[in-house]
Amino acid sequence: MPQQSKQSKQELEVIGQDVGGGCCDGLASAPLDDERAVELAKVFKALGDPVRLRLLSMIASREGGEVCVCEMTPAFELSQPTISHHLKLLRQAGLIDCERRGTWVYYWALPGVLDQLAVFLATPRTAGATA
Q1: Which tens digits make up the pLDDT trace of 86-107?
Q2: Largest Cα–Cα separation, the chain
Q3: 107 burial level (CB within 10 Å; 0-12, 13-18, 19+)
Q4: Among 22, 46, 47, 76, which is least packed by CB within 10 angstroms?
Q5: What is the model's pTM?
Q6: DSSP state, 126?
């Protein structure tokens, strides 16, 4: 039984990862279906705003993997509620997650999501092609 449970868990992990590494074709490999296009459009829409792109960069590049909202807010000439709104949109797009610790909220990039986007955007290289 333990082996059977392990197989079931592995199947659930694969099914549950819509943008999983190795589970999805890249942009140039096959046309997107409607569901996948909607899913990816949400992510790219979230990344389409310069403030959100900078926030994600600040979070993803942070040594230790997480950053307090109190450390990000001073980097922008925006109010704290506006920064929180942008962070909420990044969370809804599945790019980051957070945890409240007392007064402050700490954010981190979700493992593998950026790599999965890179795989999706990668185009196959052919012999003689130059970058």
Answers
A1: 999 999 999 999 999 999 999 9
A2: 57
A3: buried
A4: 22
A5: 0.71
A6: -
